[in-house]
Specification:
about 260 residues, Rossmann fold, seven-stranded mixed β-sheet, single chain, globular, alpha/beta
Length: about 260
């Protein structure tokens, strides 16, 4: 069990008996929760970790097959939570980790009573046959992945400002750029394909946990249509349309993010 915790650089804090697990998005690490997680330490046992390839995780633990689908990352989440004896906890997942949390909840329903999905997207590519607007065409995703494969650092510098938004605060985009650049490039390329080519729409069905969907305005990665779709597919969910803009409200609008989660819980 300790190996699992070390592998993912797990950090536990807080004073509550109920666990609250924070999972970061692509190209980020647990540090991205530093303005949100402490607000819950008085009531929860706060759990932070790094996906394999990010932050202080063990890069040697990366398995191209296991981590070739979001299910492999969900298995990692389940292993972490079982090592910490989590039951009926709260899972807070940003971006791709929102769907990783859904998959983990399907694998082990006893782990989480509540899910908070921050900027979720079950599929990034549009599906005209099913009237689904994910925000990207197939060609756009292929171009994005080709750019990432050819020049990871250049991709990071170009994409971070678009993903972050909030152009009036360039320091936010710079922080995201720096985070991308700290992530192992080879693993990041693999994770990007796993993320942006995923289709987990059907995994929204049958979820028993309560769900909060936090949807930002002007989010180029997960537009409002996606947040509304997720909410519509989850009968036991609440949708909050935030005033925050961009894809990373945990950095750009932590107070609003905390308030929305707190009201849900």
């Amino acid at each position: 069990m300790q190996d699992v915790l070390d592998r993912h650089n797990v950090r536990v804090s807080g004073h509550g008996t109920r666990a609250m697990v924070f999972a970061h998005g692509f190209g980020c690490d647990q540090h991205m929760w530093r303005w949100v997680a402490p607000a819950f330490e008085q009531r929860f046992r706060v759990v932070l970790f790094d996906h394999i390839g990010a932050g202080g995780s063990d890069l040697a633990a990366f398995d191209p097959d296991r981590h070739g689908s979001l299910g492999g990352y969900a298995d990692d989440v389940v292993a972490i939570c079982r090592a910490l004896q989590v039951r009926d906890g709260v899972f807070v997942g940003h971006s791709v980790s929102a769907m990783i949390g859904v998959l983990a909840a399907h694998r082990a329903p006893e782990l989480f009573g509540d899910l908070v999905m921050v900027g979720p997207s079950p599929r990034y590519i549009d599906d005209a046959d099913n009237d689904y607007v994910g925000g990207f065409s197939v060609a756009q995703i292929e171009q994005l992945l080709d750019f990432l494969d050819d020049n990871y650092l250049g991709w990071s510098q170009s994409m971070a400002p678009l993903i972050m938004g909030n152009t009036d605060r360039p320091q936010l985009a710079q922080e995201l750029t720096n985070s991308f650049c700290r992530t192992d490039p080879q693993i990041a390329r693999h994770f990007a394909r796993t993320t942006f080519l995923s289709d987990n729409r059907d995994d929204l069905d049958g979820l028993t946990a309560r769900v909060l969907v936090l949807q930002c305005a002007q989010d180029v990665i997960a537009p409002e249509s996606v947040g509304r779709y997720v909410h519509a597919r989850l009968p036991n969910s609440q949708l909050v349309l935030m005033e925050a803009t961009g894809h990373c409200p945990n950095l750009s609008a932590p107070a609003e993010t905390v308030a929305a989660i707190d009201a849900f819980l």
